[in-house]
Amino acid sequence: MKKILVTLLVVSLVLCAFVSCGKKAEAAPAADSGKAAATEAAPEKKYSGKVMLYSSMQEAQLQAVEKAFEKAYPGIDMEYYFASGGKVLTKMTTEAQGGQIAADVVWLGDPCDYEGFKSKGWLEKYSSPEENHIAKPYIDPDGYYTAGRLVTMGIAWNTTLVKDEEAPKTWNDLLNPLWKDQIIMTDPDQASTTKYWMTAMMQSDKYGEAFFQKLHDNGTKLESGTTATHNRVADGSYKVGICLDYVSANLIAEGSPMKFHFTTADVCTMTSPVALIKGCANPENGKHLIDFLLSKEGQEVLVGQNLVSVRDDVAMKVDTSAIAAINMPVDFIRLGENMKSYQAKFNKIWNK
């Protein structure tokens, strides 16, 4: 069985510059004779219409992408539907049953969702020229989707309630009675990133169903959305959370009393792909949006929003090579085949 190891291969270089998309060429200087010998400026490329993105990213990040994209592609109006991964999937399913998904591009957290999209015929093949700077493990071999960012699940804690040296460092540390009734996580049925982490842990021989039974027995509670989960840690409702790197980083940057770290073993990283919807209303603008998201400029916008780039030429604060050394191996094929079973086991444990 083919195994795909989610590895982080990003190499950091320092450069932060926004590149404009449509500069006119300067006219050549007039000849000494005074004759009008100036060359005409190259015509500016025109863009028009709109593009619709469905995404489970944080809205502040989508707003940053929207602003930068519309500057790079003047004339295209970018719209987006922002919701949890579970709600986006429900919307796409309902629209597909009605004949056509209303999005041009979809960008969710769980790469396994995209294998399902492929099998249902929801995606259009598209290989962006920007893929030259993206490692092959981040690109669908069949050409339907490409990683747009790297998202890592780890552990966050409230610094007013937990000393740094006491904070759980591994997944198994969460089973310590010290954290009884003090752990919060997002419901995997509501967030694609948490769903991926849960199913990857279920698949692992080191954790499996027994880990989640113990996690439940230690009083771990479920929250309905990713943002809410992180806010419950930030406001001290819970001491510890199973959280995402970038959402935690945003709250910390805003001054929330919390910290976050990656686990010291079995780090769980998701590639969060972008893909073009088959039969979409604005295919060319959808391609422009994907190109921008994968471009150096677009990835630098994401890094500015505390996300981790998939490119090999974007500077970052995160030591991706260190994370890669302890990353959890995941079999995407097996994960996709057993996802419903894993979800059913999880829901049974939490009496859902």
Please give the largest β-sheet.
6 strands, mixed
CATH topology category name of the largest domain: D-Maltodextrin-Binding Protein, domain 2
- The level 1 CATH classification of the largest domain is Alpha Beta
Can you count the beta strands? 12
Describe the structure.
The protein has 352 residues and is of the alpha/beta class. The chain has two domains: 148 residues, D-Maltodextrin-Binding Protein, domain 2; 137 residues, D-Maltodextrin-Binding Protein, domain 2 (3-Layer(aba) Sandwich), CATH 3.40.190.10. The chain contains eleven helices and twelve strands. Strands 1, 2, 3, 4, 5 and 12 form a six-stranded mixed sheet that branches. Strands 6, 7, 8, 9, 10 and 11 form a six-stranded mixed sheet that branches. α4 crosses α11. The longest helix is centred in the last third of the chain and has 18 residues. The chain starts with 49 loop residues before the first strand and ends with a helix.
